[in-house]
């Protein structure tokens, strides 16, 4: 009802009144987790499939402080799977067995529900590595980063290296995570992901690196990918089908490509000498997208390959393993199709 201050009706003003039936929704959505086993390894990935009783604009999986949004699964599971969602999840390499996980869903009225599910986390210890920094490396690489360092960071080359390896590394890693912030609601990939052909592994995922200069430990960092070395300027295939969402130089990572494989899953390709694709281009599994190189903070020709789930770097080894994909992804999808 509304009333004004007009003199009409003996100074009682004008009155307007509208009667409208309103339905107040105080019923939270119901959550049914369809996938059965959720066995994850520290630094690894997983898949949770669940059904909601109603459409919910916000839903997904909480893993510690990280949130992994759910994607409508109808395009994967079939037309009968209304209000069924799939969420690829990840454990940060620092998240161990005490990490909490649960599903949450918030409907249009703001009602929220949470539901737990059975999971098991395998803890693991990551390797340690020593990187020896030589004056030759500093003289060769530091000029490339002249515009990347702040004034007053120190006059010596080792001081510039430390700023790059610490501050610039964080900014560059955040840039790649930002490139993976939005993902297409389509599952582009199928089967095991490819690794660089005829390559040797030079560094592992989440290696704890000590940087030594003149027999002193000057820095420590963790390696968020796997380094693969083949011949110089070796052709780099797309690990699986997807969309190119990023192609440019990123500081320590050098010339980099990021592919979106859908539903929050991404692959990254760094230190490239040549980029053969453009943003928005769809690529097939095995299609050549560039060549290995030494761009960025690379001491020799190689590919730095990474996998990201939403905004968390994960161990690529799992995604190369066809048995792991079958047991942790494909079997869950096939089982959900029957429910």
UniProtKB/TrEMBL annotation:
It comes from the Bacteria. Residues 222-316 form the M23ase beta-sheet core domain. Keywords: Signal. GO terms for molecular function: metalloendopeptidase activity. The keyword Signal applies. The keyword rRNA-binding does not apply. InterPro entries: Cell_wall_metabolism_enzyme, Dup_hybrid_motif, M23ase_b-sheet_dom. This is M23 family peptidase.
């Amino acid at each position: 009802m509304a009333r004004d201050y007009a003199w009409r009706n003996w100074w009682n003003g004008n009155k307007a009144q509208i009667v409208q039936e309103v339905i107040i929704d105080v019923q939270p959505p119901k959550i049914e987790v369809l996938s059965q086993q959720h066995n994850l390894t520290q630094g690894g990935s997983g898949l949770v499939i669940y059904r909601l009783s109603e459409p919910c604009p916000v839903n997904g999986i909480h893993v510690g402080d990280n949130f992994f949004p759910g994607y409508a699964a109808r395009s994967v599971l079939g037309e009968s799977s209304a209000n069924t969602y799939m969420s690829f999840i990840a454990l940060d390499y620092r998240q161990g067995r005490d990490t909490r996980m649960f599903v949450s869903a918030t409907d249009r009225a703001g009602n929220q529900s949470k539901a737990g599910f059975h999971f098991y986390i395998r803890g693991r210890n990551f390797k340690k590595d020593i990187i020896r920094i030589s004056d030759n490396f500093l003289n060769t690489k530091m000029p490339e980063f002249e515009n990347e360092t702040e004034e007053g960071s120190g006059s010596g080359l080792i001081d510039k290296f430390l700023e790059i390896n610490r501050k610039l590394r964080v900014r560059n890693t955040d840039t790649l995570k930002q490139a993976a912030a939005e993902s297409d609601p389509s599952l582009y990939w199928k089967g095991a992901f490819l690794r660089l052909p005829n390559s040797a592994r030079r560094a592992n995922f989440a290696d704890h690196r000590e940087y030594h200069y003149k027999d002193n430990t000057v820095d420590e960092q963790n390696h968020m990918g796997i380094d693969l070395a083949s011949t110089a300027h070796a052709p780099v295939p797309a690990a699986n089908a997807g969309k190119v969402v990023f192609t440019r130089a990123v500081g320590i990572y050098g010339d980099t490509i990021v592919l979106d494989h859908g539903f929050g899953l991404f692959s990254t390709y760094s230190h490239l000498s040549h980029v053969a694709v453009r943003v928005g281009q769809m690529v097939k599994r095995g299609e050549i997208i560039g060549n290995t190189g030494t761009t960025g903070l690379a001491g020799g020709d190689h590919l730095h390959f990474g996998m990201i789930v939403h905004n968390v770097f994960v161990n690529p080894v799992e995604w190369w393993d066809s048995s792991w994909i079958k047991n942790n992804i494909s079997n869950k999808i096939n089982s959900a199709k029957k429910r």
